[in-house]
Structure formats: structure tokens, C-alpha cells
Amino acid sequence: MGNTFGHLFRVTTWGESHGGAVGVVIDGCPPRISISESDIQFELDRRRPGQSAIVTQRKETDTVKILSGVFEGKTLGTPICMLVMNEDARPEAYRDIAEKFRPSHADYTYFIKYGIRNWQGGGRSSARETIGRVAAGAVAKKILKEKYNVEILAYVQQIYKLKANIDKTKVTMAEVESNPVRCPDQSMAKEMEALIKEIRSKGDSVGGIIECVARNVPAGWGDPVFDKLSADLAKAMLSIPATKGFEYGSGFDCVNYTGTEHNDAFCIKDGKVSTKTNFSGGIQGGISNGELIYFRVAFKPTATVMVEQQTVDIHFRETTLKPSGRHDPCVLPRAVPIVEAMTALVLLDHALRHEAQCK
Amino acid sequence: MGNTFGHLFRVTTWGESHGGAVGVVIDGCPPRISISESDIQFELDRRRPGQSAIVTQRKETDTVKILSGVFEGKTLGTPICMLVMNEDARPEAYRDIAEKFRPSHADYTYFIKYGIRNWQGGGRSSARETIGRVAAGAVAKKILKEKYNVEILAYVQQIYKLKANIDKTKVTMAEVESNPVRCPDQSMAKEMEALIKEIRSKGDSVGGIIECVARNVPAGWGDPVFDKLSADLAKAMLSIPATKGFEYGSGFDCVNYTGTEHNDAFCIKDGKVSTKTNFSGGIQGGISNGELIYFRVAFKPTATVMVEQQTVDIHFRETTLKPSGRHDPCVLPRAVPIVEAMTALVLLDHALRHEAQCK
Amino acid sequence: MGNTFGHLFRVTTWGESHGGAVGVVIDGCPPRISISESDIQFELDRRRPGQSAIVTQRKETDTVKILSGVFEGKTLGTPICMLVMNEDARPEAYRDIAEKFRPSHADYTYFIKYGIRNWQGGGRSSARETIGRVAAGAVAKKILKEKYNVEILAYVQQIYKLKANIDKTKVTMAEVESNPVRCPDQSMAKEMEALIKEIRSKGDSVGGIIECVARNVPAGWGDPVFDKLSADLAKAMLSIPATKGFEYGSGFDCVNYTGTEHNDAFCIKDGKVSTKTNFSGGIQGGISNGELIYFRVAFKPTATVMVEQQTVDIHFRETTLKPSGRHDPCVLPRAVPIVEAMTALVLLDHALRHEAQCK
Amino acid sequence: MGNTFGHLFRVTTWGESHGGAVGVVIDGCPPRISISESDIQFELDRRRPGQSAIVTQRKETDTVKILSGVFEGKTLGTPICMLVMNEDARPEAYRDIAEKFRPSHADYTYFIKYGIRNWQGGGRSSARETIGRVAAGAVAKKILKEKYNVEILAYVQQIYKLKANIDKTKVTMAEVESNPVRCPDQSMAKEMEALIKEIRSKGDSVGGIIECVARNVPAGWGDPVFDKLSADLAKAMLSIPATKGFEYGSGFDCVNYTGTEHNDAFCIKDGKVSTKTNFSGGIQGGISNGELIYFRVAFKPTATVMVEQQTVDIHFRETTLKPSGRHDPCVLPRAVPIVEAMTALVLLDHALRHEAQCK
């Protein structure tokens, strides 16, 4: 249970980090949309390990294959199944952790919940699961752009204590993609890169914050009362591995204002209703108001660190553990396309819901 | 759409702030649970306006009536419908806002989405909608306590810039309920109360942070990958009116640690698996690990302020607005039982899901 | 669980036959639809007992009240809660069956499933539950008619061994409503009425067949592969109490044809694609093809008969039972509006689904 | 939309008849169940074309591959993805129907609904889609047998006008599988086989009726009011291609009885509650009562016939069509495992729902 996301654009991911493959099925995709494997591959390549010196070096091409739902380059309206084969099967690399629970990983909780776990890597809790999300998100992004002109852009705003200075209304994808950290503040990006390298050399890890904006979302998307746009975004973000918090608009900082300071006065701008400020983050009462949507997501430092740690084994005895093998000291650059993908899934689902009920 | 929450313990709220009634239907409640109207009323009374000098003075008894699903004091396993009649119908009080969009309320977005709105108060976006949540949450809390010994407790941790000092492992409901602010740090509670009174005298408002703990949740609740316990809690919290952010465990503060500092080492405590620290907030990989679950929710300052503000009317002309009538300068004390209710809905749903799949 | 029907036009019924009330919540209703209590009452009155000499004499006005979701005569797009209070509470009338399982009723299965039952009448399995369906169906019928010009009409085709002769392409609601049996073959209706009176005098009961047609359904409604229009209609019909079978188009009679005889040849009629025959019943591959949709539903003889029957009590001892009180020798006339209501729920849900995915 | 079945044991099928592959994802499978590809292959082989002289001769091995959710022979509790590659890609064989709508197929309705279709065979409406159902059903059957001792058995009861004589309480799988028609009345099976061969020689086709029994289903499965066991079985059956009707227990024949004749008297048999007759088909009020569950499904004659038929092309001009290539004069033998699979999906889903709510 729990492997499906969305009500009308329904995405089901499947697959463990080791074993046959990882993939996704999309049900409810509108027909006659142009989709090719290269559209999907573009986003997967952004997520893929081994792209730069600062990310994990898992050696896989992560080549996507579309198995159904697309015919002569167009979607049929039927389920789209996409998969990526797992090539990097190195069970021996995981023998040493087969009987130990890695701290702050999901090893222990999966074992307790299911009474069994795939000890070859993270199994289902591995970041490889997000391949399916990114593939589905690539489809959703394309539809959002073509049908609604909606653009989604995420970027790294903070790594450890290093905070970037970014104008969220102007930042472009080119700026984000111009450095391996995916931080559009180029000088801060350099500092972040240096920090990550230093952290890597110590076998340690760091977390940070990703901010995401959605532009041109029309007013009216989002369903009160439980399926508020903000609530669905919160769920989407907290479903990404390693996330610890979500805030939109003024977020936690809202506590530092009084109501008169914090309210977004309505006004008429270029002949249409707008707000003078945007503490609301483009969402009021759970429904988009036509302003820029923006939110932030906190990622914890990667749980895998290359130092000896105290832990417990599957026989519930205390022991120690020092992982060998690959090490990803900071997942944020690779998490950027995942944040975008999940945002696209939420927005497109609500776009379709709006068409169904209110048009 | 969007008025149902939960997969197995399914809660559907309905009702506008003015009009017949507000209420809730629970589908999937286990049979043979003792439930009385007084169990529900206890929680509703905690949520009700007019309880103290610092909250809104809406004059309603909010008396709940159970219309179905309970027979001779026991649940039947059939849908439980509960309602509270709206008594405080004062449409004339809203005439002045009938054609104007209140800033940072949902007036504008509902109007744009649906092409119609109930201008008598907040309509569906009113806090009165949460009556249904609290009623359903009262049932869920009872089942969680009786079947699983799970306890849920929320409290005010911060109002505006005033931060309380609270030991989350020891705080009790009696401490929380002993002052009108629902802040268990009694001296800070006094300061908060003074602040709220001062803010009220200015016709202004403030927000703050509610923290919530869940005790005795067994390891194994939560469904990867999208329906992580943390993701469902995030959605539940962000679906509460006026919320802006959610974080669990170390939350946004996680960015200030390295992985070696932040990992929760496993150990054996009292013969069972435990963790030395609890940055994970009791949830790893989206599944409870048996430790204390805790999280924090940010509430913005109330949008209704008693001062003149710039806005736009339904003919899309700029105008000004100064609300008259009731004023709730700080919703946090009344939001405490709502946070608890939503937490109970999430936990019970996952308890039942766990029974279904893994037992 | 199981008390909600529909994916986009979501209907949740609640209520037992005795106790507070029975009702329904509709989530996902389009906004700005004109709905009044009299629209709903019209359909409820068709379903109500005591309308004629041949139906059960339960003395209730079944007056509907709309509690939410409608403002100044228009739907808001928010949940519509409607209820009917239970007036006819005569628990003493059921004392004699409180400890006995009525044969071919749901008494035993509810008791075994839930470990408790409301012995005052059928409880949740009572036909009173269908009040909520008919109320929701009244809303759905109105939307289907106004937005899509779709008309739904059901009628009694057979009672016991008496079969009516009806031209399904021409039958009108006036013809159906012109006699208490709701059989548009007027001479057969008289025979049926006489039969029901005779059966009633014996304390016995009979079943029969209701046929339903849906006119002007555009081609393209229905979702392969599991949510075929035909599959959802089958589920909708078999969810009505006392039903035993469903068939559409040629139905079970299809076995008597070869493929060459049974195929519906496509042709051009009045400039549009049509079929020469309509064995398909207007549905091909689970999707409407623009032809007349028609199907038939079998209803068993009412389980309540006024004669002594062998049974078992709640202590699992053999005993006998002879019900006293009301007796409904044939439910079909009253089931006609229920069949129409469920058909409307299926069709409107698929209309909205089609808007969402394919427009 | 519409490609997922089930609430707790959720099955999503995907794939067209031509193109990459067909398959299924199961979400919600209990962990620690032994499953191997050979368990799945056994059922797929029963469904596969080319097994005997009387079925279509599509030349494919239909070899299943499990891509996720199973580790070292046991289910992990995570999604199980299974697929079968499409080998028999012969687009040229379909060139002649690329622009024509085959009568009583889904060609026209898919084209109208989606504005596009995969003209290489039936696309998504092809019987190949049922491979995913049978694979998922194989898992469900295994769990039902191992955890609940529930057995499901379907067989051909009628082909065209030839009716078999079968004792549903005693029939065994060995009897069903002992002839290519899958009719356990061996002498009638011979006649049916001769009939099918004769029909094939004419290029024509026939339909028939499949009966299915479920043994040892405990009392208490099924969820009132919409998700009755009978309603979900009806939907499951009508979702199978070529089906036209469903009836359970006495079915349509119920109309020929009065209530006193038709009621199933309760009695005590071998110390437990039982019924003297079983017109209820093991289901009362939508919940299993512990008796044998049985129902019947009508299949129309195969729409593909090898004779010239009148039809319309995609430019909406009248034309004629004579298919070439493969011809399956009677799908019923191959539909038997599909009926069993869908029955298993319904029963297991309700078993899990019962665990969740009532245990």
C-alpha cells in the first residue's frame, strides 16, 4: 500500500534498488500528448548518480524504456509503464550490512513492519525508487507546460549553513543547471561545492534546503478541505526520502509578523487581481490565487556516512557498523529534479480535478 | 472533492459556517467501540470559541448529535454521522463583506474556483469546518488509546516571538489545559496571554507554533513510499486552516548538523531496540520506529484584523475593507485539539492499514 | 467501509432504519447548479413506502433537508449533506426478532461480521439506506439532463412470471408513472397489481425484473479496463438490496446467437455513426458508443414474509420466526427510482472523468 | 483511469496487445508469502492461446518475469511488478483494419473517447490485457488458499445452446482441466468441442456461460452498502472483455419463486449455522454467510468472425471488412482462469478489509 500518488493522474512506482528493475505506471494520462523516451531521459539524467565529482558514483546508465501507453509518439490515454533496469547489482557489497540496521536508514522499520527486507541496498526505501517519480514527473511537466504554460523550477537554496541569495521571481533553469550543486547563486555554489568536497573527504555528509517555484499557475487549482494544494504539496515533499520539513509562502517565519503586516492586500495589476505582497505563497484557503507559488523543503544530512557507528543487528544485539562502497555526501543536487517531479504530479492532478468539477 | 481524509478510517466533513449545520461522516470505524456524545462533546468544547477572554466570542453551544452508526452506546461498524447545528446565523454581519474579498482569506480563491461563494462568513473555508474533524478525531483518539495505548498531545510552543520551554517527553495534558493559551510552560503562558490581549486591543493578530507528540506508537506504522507516516502527517497538518509549515524530528534545523552528528545510533534499552538520540522524530523511511513521534506546525497570524485594509471587490475594483464583529487575535489555543484530531486520524488509519497488510 | 460510491461525484450514504436519521453526503458536485429540496423530494416521494395499496405502509413523510453545499438555491461546489429524520421508531415491533436471524435477510451476516447489530429493523441493511442514494441520484439526474441532455428511465418489466411488452426506445416516464406498479404496459400492469394483492393476502412475496434505459449518452463515456461503464453499472445495480443479477444489451440471451448474428454492424444514420442492431446495449469495450444504453436487473422476492419460518437465534439454536407488522409483498415499484438513481451516479461520474482526462 | 482494481490488494494492469509488453503491479500484497515465477506461469499457461485445437493460435510463450517485490522467493510487502513481453508483433496483419472499426469491438469507442487508437490489434482492449489480471490473480489465489483455505474454481457451463450438467458442490479442478473446453461434464464437453470446431470451420463464433464457485469462504467478508461482495464480483466479472451478464445464487431465476419458496431457512449443521437451501449463493446483504459462493457470467460470441461484415471507417464512411489472420471461435475455455483470477482479487481484497476493520 501507499505506492500510488494522485487521484486523476495516478502514479504508481515499483521496484527495489537491487533486483530486476525500477519503474512506474501512470494511469489517467490525457491522450494525444507527444512523449518520447528522450523527454523522460532528460529528467532522469538530471537525477542520475555519477554526474559530477560531488555525487555518488553508482555506475548505471539508467536508460528508460516506455513499455505501454504511447503509440507512434503520442499518448493513448491508456496506462504508461516505464522502467529502468537495475544494472549495478553488487550484492556482495551489502553482505556486511545484511544483518545490521544502518542508523537513520529505513532498515529497522522495514524489518519490523514486514518481517523481511531486501538487504541489498535500501531495497524499496532506496533513492532509486525516485526514478519512477522523475519519469512520471517528466510527463506531467510536459503536459503542464503545453496545456497550461505552467513552469516548475527547483534549486538548492542552502547547504549546511551556507545560504544562497536568490531572486525567486527571476531565477532561470539555465542558472540552476550551470553548476553541479544546482544553486543559481553562482558564487555561493562554488562555496557549497568546496564544502561538499571537504565533507566527502571526511566520510561525513550534509543536508540543506531546496526551494521550488511554480509559475503561471492559474487561480482556482486546489481542492478544499483536505486536498488543499498546500496540503498535497506538503505530502508530496515529505514523501521524498530524507526530507524533514515543508513550508510555503512565509512558512515558519510567519510567526514573526502580526496580521496587519502579514496579510496580502489585493490590488489590480495590469488589469487583473493580484496581491501587493505574497506571504501566501500563491495559495489561499488551499487554492491557487494566480500569484507565484513557492515553497521550501528541508533535507537531512545523508544517513550513509563512512565512519564507524553504533547500531543493532537483526538479532537485536548491539554492534558497530562502518559502511564501505559508495558515498553520497549531499543528495540535494540530485533531489532537485525529484522536487520538481513531485510538484508537477500535484499540480497536474489538481488541474485535471479542476477541469472535472468546475469547468 | 477533497473533503474525505483517510483510506480505511475514512472521514468526510461537510458544512459551511452559516447555513444548516456542520458535521462529519466516518466510514470504516471498527465495531463494538463505546462512544457517547459526551466523548465527542469533550473535544468539541476544547475547540469551541468563547471559552476564555482571549478567543473569539462566537456564541454557540456547538452541541454534537450522533445520527447513525452507534447503537446502545457501541459502534456498529457502519457509518457514523455526527452534526452540530449552526445557531449563530447573522448574515447581516457579513453584508459589508459580501462583495469584497478579505485579504489572505479564501474569499477570492473560492470565488474564482467555483464562480460562487457563500459570503456569510468563511463558508466552507471557515474554521467551523474543523468541528467535523475534531468530532471524528475524538473517536479515533478513543480507539487509539483503548486498542493500542497510543496517546496524542499537542500544545502551544510559540506565540509570535515568545518561545516556551517544554520537555516533550514529560509534558501532560493537565499542564496543557491548565491555562487558556494551552502552553504547558506556565510562566511563558502568562506572557503569551498578556501579548494576545495587547494584540487584541489593537485589532491585530498573531500566529505561532504548535508542537504535537504521539506516545507509545509501536514500530511498523506507515506505508512507503507516498503514504509515509511523515507525509500523511504533513498533509493532515497543512490541511488545517492558517497553517504554513510542518516539520518533524529535527525538522528544518537538520541542516545545521552533519550526518555523523545527526544519525540516531541504535541501541538496546530495557531489552528492546531504541535510539540514543531522536532526530528522526520517531519515523524512519516513513515508518514509525517505536520512539516518541513529534512534529511542529506553523500557524500564520489570523487574517481577520480589525483595521482598514486595501482589497478588491467582486467586480474587480480596488476598495478598502474594515471588518466589524468578532475578532480572534490568536487561533492557536483552539487549534490545539484540531492538531490532535488530525494526528489521531492519520495514526489510526495507518494502524488499520498495518493490520490489513502485515498481520 | 464501502459506504462511498463514485470517483469524482462521490456519494457517501449513512444511517440505519431506526435511530436518528438516514442521509447522504455528495462530494464533487459541480458548482452553480440549481437545486432545491423539492427537486430531491420529488424523487424521494417516488421511493417512499405507503404510496399505494400494493406497497409497505411505513408511515413516514421522508422529508428531506439540505444541510450544506447549497446557497441561495445554487450548489457551491462544496459537500452537499442531505438527511431525512427517522420518525417511525417502533423498537417494540422488533423485539421478537431481536434475538433471531430472519431468513435471507442480512441479520446473520451483519452479526457475524461486526459482532453486533441494530436489531431494530434491518439497521444499515434496511431499504431506508437507499433514501440517501435517491437523494444523491436526484442531483445527478438534474445535472445529466441540464448539462448533457441525458435521460434515465427505469420501469418494471416482469413481476413473478408476468412479463410486460415494452418498446424500450419509446417508453415515457408518464407511461411508467401512470400505474402503481410502474410498468408501462398498462394491461400487464393491471395483472401485476392483481397478482401482488393476491400474494399479499397470503403473506407471501414476489420478485421480478426492472429494465432501465439511458438516452442521449454521448459516445466516449466509460473507463477501461476495470471501470468499464458496464462494470460500474453492474456494481451499482448489485449494490441495491435484493438484487440477484445484471445484464446489459443482449445479456444472458447472447449465448443463443453466433458472432455473425450478434455483431452490431456499423452504419451511417442521419450523418453520424450508428449501429444497425444494438445487442451491445450502447456499450462497447466498456465505453458508450452513442446508442441507447439499456440493461436489466433481477430482484428476488422480498425476504420478509408473514408466515412461520425455520431459523436460528443469536445463541445458535434452531427456532422459528413469524414476523408481525409491515409487509411489502413486492419491492419493485419502489425500486424503480433507486435503479434510476444509481444509474445517474454511474453516468455522471463517468461524464466528469471524461471531462478530466479527454477534453 | 480505471486501470486499478481493489482497495487494499490493489492491482493495476497496463499494456497494449502490440508494443513493448503487458503487465501488472500489485500494491498491498502481504509480506513473507512464497511466490515464484512458476506459480504465476501455471495460471498464465491456462489462459494462453494455442493450447489446443479449439483456441486461437497466437504464437507466444507468454513467459512471465517478476521485476520487483519478491526477494529470495518471498514477497517483501512492496509492489510486485510482473510483465510478459509481446513477441507476436505483426503490424502488417492489422494494416487492413487500421482505418476500419471492427463491429462489436472497442475500436470505435476508443477512437471517439481518446481521439487516437493503437490499431495494431485490440490495443488496450485486447484480451492480452487479461495477462496482468491472471498473474495478479495467481498471487491472490495462493494467499487465499494458504491463509484462509479458500478455493476458487470456474468452469464452462454452457456453450451456445449446449448446457452441461454439473454438481457445483463436488466438481474438481482435475475434472475441469481434463478437456480443452474446461467443462467438467465430460460427455457434454465432447459435444461442445465438436460444436466449436464446426463453428470455426464456418469462420463464425459462439459464446456461453461460465460458472464459478468459491469454497470455504468464512462468514463475514463483504462491505455494505456499495462494496457488497456480490456488487464487487459483478463489477469484476463485467470488467472482463466480452461479458454481458452476471448473476449469483438463484440469479435471474429468482423471479420464478415466491418468498416462502425462495428464503433460505437457517439451521444448525455439524454444530454450526447453515442454510437448508442456498438460493442466496453464499452472500446475504452483501456479506458472505459461510455457504458455497457461486455465480454465473455470460460471454457473448467472439466479435472477430472470418466473414465479410458491414462497417464504417475512421473517416465515417460506410465500408466492409473481412478480417484475416487468427480466429478464436470461442473464448470461454481461456476465460475460465480469468474468471477465477478476478474472483480471487475480490475475495482477497475483502479478506484484508475484514482484517482491518473487524478484527
Extended strand count of chain A: 18
So what's the oligomer here?
homotetramer
With strands numbered from the N-terminus, the spatial order across the biggest sheet of chain A is 1-2-3-7-4
Distance between the termini of chain A: 32 Å
Shape of chain A, please?
Answer: globular
User: CATH homologous superfamily of chain A?
Assistant: Chorismate synthase AroC
Average the pLDDT over all residues of chain A and give the rounded result: 94
Element order of chain A: H for helix, E for strand: EEEHEEEEHHHEEHHEHEHEEEEEEEH
Q: Count the helices of chain A. How many?
A: 9
- How much β-strand is present in the residues of chain A? 15-25%
Task: Explain this structure.
The structure is a homotetramer of 359-residue chains. With 359 residues, chain A is an alpha+beta fold. Chain A has one domain (4-358): Chorismate synthase, AroC fold. Helix content of chain A is 29%, strand content 22%. Chain A contains nine helices and 18 strands. In chain A, strands 1-2-3-7-4 form a five-stranded antiparallel beta sheet, with helices on one face. Chain A has a five-stranded antiparallel beta sheet with strand order 9-8-10-16-11. In chain A, strand 1 (4-5) and strand 2 form a beta hairpin. In chain A, helix 1 crosses helix 9 (332-358) and helix 4 crosses helix 9 (332-358). The longest helix of chain A is centred in the C-terminal third of the chain and has 27 residues, at 332-358. Chain A is globular. The model of chain A has no long low-confidence stretch (mean pLDDT 94). Chains in contact: A-B, A-C, A-D, B-C, B-D, C-D. The interface between A and B is large, with 115 and 115 residues.
